[in-house]
Amino acid sequence: MPVARLRHRTAAASTRSPSNQDARARMLPTALWPAWALRLTPWHASGKPVARRADELLAVACLLAGNTTSIRAAALLTGTTVSSHNVSSLLAELTRRPDCTDVLHALILLADHLDQHGSPIDYARRRALFTTRSSFIAPLDWRDLQRRLRSNHLPDAAHAQRWIFHTLTGSPPRLAHPAIASATPSQRGQYLRFRWRILPAEVDLLLHTARTILDEHGIDEPVQWIPHLDDATVRALRLPGPDPNSISAAELHRAVPGGDFSIARLAHVLNTTTAHAIYLLSQHLVDWSPPRFRHIHYIATRIAQWRTWYEDDHYSLQDIADLEDTSLATVRLALLKYGFPLRTAVPRPGRPSRRGRRRADC
Prior knowledge:
- This protein has helices at 2-7, 34-40, 54-64, 71-78, 84-96, 103-117, 123-130, 139-149, 157-169, 185-197, 200-216, 231-235, 249-255, 263-270, 274-283, 291-312, 317-324, 328-337.
- The radius of gyration is 25 Å and the shape is elongated.
- It starts with a helix and ends in a 25-residue tail after the last helix.
- The chain folds into four domains: 2-119, no CATH class; 127-216, no CATH class; 242-283; 290-362, no CATH class.
- The chain contains 18 helices and no strands.
- By secondary structure, the protein is mostly helical.
- Helix 3 (54-64) packs across helix 5, helix 9 (157-169) crosses helix 11 and helix 10 crosses helix 15 (274-283).
């Protein structure tokens, strides 16, 4: 039986009798980390996964490796609502398919890595803290950012709530508080699109909010984390999904057209799967905002450094403009807009002064 192969680790060289490994559940998200789910999930020829909620099923399977606990208990420990039957069915499918020869081996390696090295995130604690929370970000803060970044349709603020819940807990939004849970297929599809159409400035706000929430609870952990195995070991395994890092951010951004486009078309251009294309877009963010909004965000992210250079290091406006490859007017107007006083110019040797009026240093 596939479950017995996991329990006794017969898919790996280090076969041994199972023991209680339930402590590993604290190191596992409810849904396996996206990069690992992409690599380990089998797909039909039609492009659909062979099992719904495969990432949750795989997380349960990872807990079962070398473990004596029942499938039902493992599902409860990881916080999912998938059935024992669905877990068993996926494991059986993995043993039947030639492209999944080493998936069980990979799950055992992941389990061993967690047992030996631990995880910097206590997912069980986060599930207990945040699954009952109905709001993670003030809707007004989200709408204010949206007005600065987008000139047309504004994403539903509920997606921002779901993103933070998903990021903090590793649990799919369907398991969040009913006030923000994605309850319908339409909502789940919209949230998936939100994840890969999100703007870099939006991610900055959401990550900052997530970090603040952790700090409020006294949790000194990274916001996100993923375990990494030895590259050579993983490359030697026969796995159904693509290597998440086989396409660079630069390659992705060159292939992404402007405006709306088809994920299927992008996947075709990149010669990969639609799931891989979606994963890449969610990891290597594309700034879809119009140039005017990108310019505003650029200034907002650089103004603190410009102020330091100008006030503490006594750089001139022109020096800053040269360093940033922008115009003197951009730097000058930005400092004025943010309320930073400009120095009175001191003529440089060899530079003619403008008599009769004072001007800002340039």
